[in-house]
Design goal:
The protein has four helices and 27 strands. The protein is an alpha/beta fold and 429 residues long. Among the domains are: 80 residues, Alpha-Beta Horseshoe (Leucine-rich repeat, LRR (right-handed beta-alpha superhelix)), CATH 3.80.10.10; 128 residues, Ribonuclease Inhibitor (Leucine-rich repeat, LRR (right-handed beta-alpha superhelix)); 46 residues, no CATH class. The protein has an eight-stranded parallel β-sheet, with no helix packed on it. Helix 3 runs antiparallel to helix 4.
Length: 429
């Protein structure tokens, strides 16, 4: 037993220098690890000990931070390609700008967490493909606009949460597929219109909650399938109308709660099956119409609470009695003034259905279903519509030759983006 114990102590002594080594060298006050390829470097965390058990500390750092593109050590030149996890976390003493070189491809989780002293604009180079979770959380001193580079495919959770100083626009490129939970929550200074590009399929919980200073429209791309809980809650500055694209299947609870600035109509796309609890509660600025598609099977409690401005509701639901309704779905909508339009032949069903029957004016209306991407007008979106769009682009045929609208993206032109949008609709069905 004594021999085994001695052997364990020996192994621990051998391993100690290996496990204690956290950076390979320092140059100009920054610590680096050599990556596996032996030619590139990662800027590493401030408190890891080196092989001599000395600790590196950036706690007293001040002024600007410039991360170099390359570093020379002992006669060898390395390219700096990564900023490691927690590398500068809690370094609140920086008081100037942050410069990230074009050589960097990844920014680790919480790399600049709570670096509240940085000032000026934040420029993330186009070389960056990965932004870790919480990487810039609570960097409240950055100002101006923020542009996510078009090399990034995912914006991780809490990536820019609490960056309250941004006071310009937010640009999300077509390369982004998902926006993580709380990615931009409490970024209270962003202004202008927010466009979610057609590439985005997932918007996580609280992704933009409390981004209350946006002053333009909210444009949701037509590939989004999921809008998470409270994704846009308390974004009270958005104006104009809101269209939930046909690609969306679920609108989660509180998704647009207290978005009181919308001033026109609300159109819910014809693939939505669930409208969550409190989804549009407190959206008191809507005027015009609320359009609910026939695809809806459940509407959560208080979903439209306080939406007092709607002049009418266009319900395309053919059988209201089978739709699961939570408590007080339409509370706050003036039912003596707001007209409920229903499909032809369905008036009596609505007058017998719980909550729907509370509307004084229930009027049958005949309308033709408009399906986004259905150029041929055959009631479905398929490869024929893809071919039709290509024909328009190649000027083989004119847009007027087709029943549907070829400009699926709504950007004023018919191009490859519309082809991609139609393909995404097909794949999502």
């Amino acid at each position: 037993m004594k021999k085994i114990y001695s052997l364990l102590l020996l192994l621990a002594a051998i391993m100690l220098p290996i496990t204690a080594t956290a950076y390979d060298f320092m140059v100009d006050g920054l610590a680096y690890n050599i990556n596996e390829d032996d030619t590139t470097l990662t800027v590493t965390y401030q408190h890891y000990p080196n092989k001599d058990n000395n600790y590196v500390s950036y706690d007293n750092a001040s002024g600007s931070l410039i991360i170099p593109e390359s570093v020379t050590y002992e006669g060898r030149t390395y390219s700096v390609t990564s900023i490691g996890e927690l590398a500068f976390s809690d370094c609140s003493g920086f008081t100037g700008s942050l410069t990230i070189p074009n050589s960097v491809t990844s920014i680790g989780y919480e790399a600049f967490f709570d670096c509240s002293g940085f000032t000026g604009t934040l420029t993330i180079p186009n070389s960056v493909t990965s932004i870790g979770y919480g990487s810039f959380q609570n960097c409240s001193g950055f100002t101006g606009s923020l542009t996510i580079p078009n090399s990034v495919t995912a914006i991780s959770w809490r990536a820019f949460s609490g960056c309250t100083g941004f006071n310009g626009s937010l640009t999300i490129p077509e390369s982004v597929i998902s926006i993580g939970e709380s990615a931009f929550t409490y970024c209270i200074g962003f202004t202008g219109t927010l466009t979610i590009p057609n590439s985005v399929t997932y918007i996580g919980q609280n992704a933009f909650s409390d981004c209350r200073s946006f002053t333009g429209e909210l444009i949701l791309g037509n590939s989004v399938t999921y809008i998470g809980p409270a994704a846009f809650a308390c974004c009270s500055g958005f104006t104009g109308s809101l269209t939930i694209p046909n690609s969306v299947k679920t609108i989660s609870y509180d998704a647009f709660n207290s978005c009181s600035g919308f001033t026109e109509s609300l159109t819910i796309g014809n693939s939505v099956t669930i409208i969550g609890e409190w989804a549009f509660s407190g959206c008191s600025g809507f005027t015009g119409s609320l359009t609910i598609p026939n695809s809806v099977t459940a509407i959560g409690e208080w979903a439209f609470y306080g939406c007092s401005g709607f002049a009418n509701i266009n319900s395309h639901i053919n059988n209201p009695s089978i739709v699961q309704l939570g408590d007080e779905v339409f509370i706050g909508i003036p039912k003596d003034e707001c007209i409920l339009y229903v499909p032809v032949g369905c008036e009596q069903e609505y007058r017998n259905a719980d909550q729907w029957k509370d509307f004084d004016q229930i009027i049958e209306k005949e309308w033709s279903e408009v399906i986004s991407g259905d150029l041929s007008g055959d009631g479905k979106v398929d490869v024929e519509d893809v071919n039709a769009t290509i024909n328009i682009i190649l000027e083989i045929k004119d847009a007027s030759d087709y029943t549907g609208n070829a400009d699926v993206t709504g950007d004023g032109k018919v191009d490859i983006e519309d082809v991609n949008a139609i393909i995404n609709i097909i794949l999502s069905n």
